[in-house]
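Batch job 17 of 40 flagged for manual review because the log was empty.
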Amino acid sequence: MKTALIIPAYKPGKDMLALLEQFRGREDFLPVVVDDGSGEAFRPIFDAVPEGVALLRHPENRGKGAALKTAIGYVLEKCPECDFALTADADGQHRFEDILKVNEAARRRPEALTLGSRRFEGDVPLRSRFGNAVTRQVFAIASGVKVYDTQTGLRAFGREAMARFLEVPGERYEYEINMLLSAAQAEIPVVEEWIETVYLDDNASSHFNPFRDSLKIYLCILKFGASSLLAFVIDFIMVLLLSTLTKSLPKATSVRVSVIGARLVSATVNFAVNRRVVFKGNESLGKALGKYAMLAAAVLAVKTALMHVTTVVWGWPLVLANILIELMLFLVNFTVQGKFVYRRRSAGRGRDHDR
C-alpha cells in the first residue's frame, strides 16, 4: 500500500524542502505538492523539490481547501496505487516522525479519518490555544463527535473518503472544519494520534488570518445553531402577538398564555429543522421526539417562571425580559439538543480516539 503525501504550499520556505528530502526514495509514499499561486519569487523553492515529487500548480492563490482538493482529485485520477492520502502543512510544523505515526495509525483503521492531534502544551501562542479550545467545544455540540484538535492539518484517509472529501465545500481554511463535519455526518470514525506541538517563531510562517479565517470556521460550525435562532425569532414574535391578543386578561394569565402558546409553535419548528437539517441525528423519530418534548417542557417551565418573576414581580418590560431569558436558554438548548436529543451512541463514533 502506498500513501499520497499531500502538501498544499503557499509561499513556503526551505522547511518544506527539508521535509520532502526525508521522503526521498521511500516507495511507500508519493509526495504531491500543490503550489497555490505562490508567485515567481518562490519558483526556486518549487524547482528544488526532490525527484519523484508530483508538483501541481495554481496560477493564482485559491486557498488551502482548493489546493487540497486539487491534490485529492489528482490522486484519485492519476495514482491508483495510492490507497491513502495524508495531508501535511508546508511550514515545518509537522515532523517526519509524526507523519509516519499518523500514516501507521491510518493503515490500522483504513475506514477512519485519522488526525494528528496536538496537545497544545508548552509554549503555544494564545490565539492557537484559545481558538482550538472554543472550536473543540462548539464542534462537539454541533456534530456529536469529540475531536481534541479540530484545526490540525495532519490527516490521513482512504480512497473512499477521498471521493467524499473532494465534494466538501470550502476553498480556504474553512474546508478543514467542513471535512470534519462531513465525516461526522457520514459516521466515518475519527481516530486521533498524539503528535508534537510545534510552533515556529510564534507561528509567524502561517498564512492563517486569525480574524478572517476563524470567522469562516466559526460561522461554518455555528450554522448548526441557526435553527435555534429561527425558533427564537418565531417565539419572540408569537409572544408579542399573543400578549396583544390576551391583553384583556389578568397580566399573569396573559403572560402564561403568551409564553406557552409561543413555545408550542417555535418548538415544533425547532424540532423539525434540527432533526432533519441541523444535527441530522441518528436517533429514531419517536425517541428523539420524546427527549425533545422533555427538554421543551423543562425549558418552558423555567422560562414561564422566569417571565413571571421578571415581568409580574419585578415589573420589567416584556420585551427586555423575553430577550434576556431567551439568550440564557439558547446555550442550554443548543448544548442539550446537540449532545443528547438527536443522537444515539454507536460503535465507531465518540470512542475512536487513540490517545
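Reviewer: the log was empty due to a logging misconfiguration, but the result itself is present. DSSP finds twelve helices and seven strands in the chain. Unflagging and moving on to job 18.
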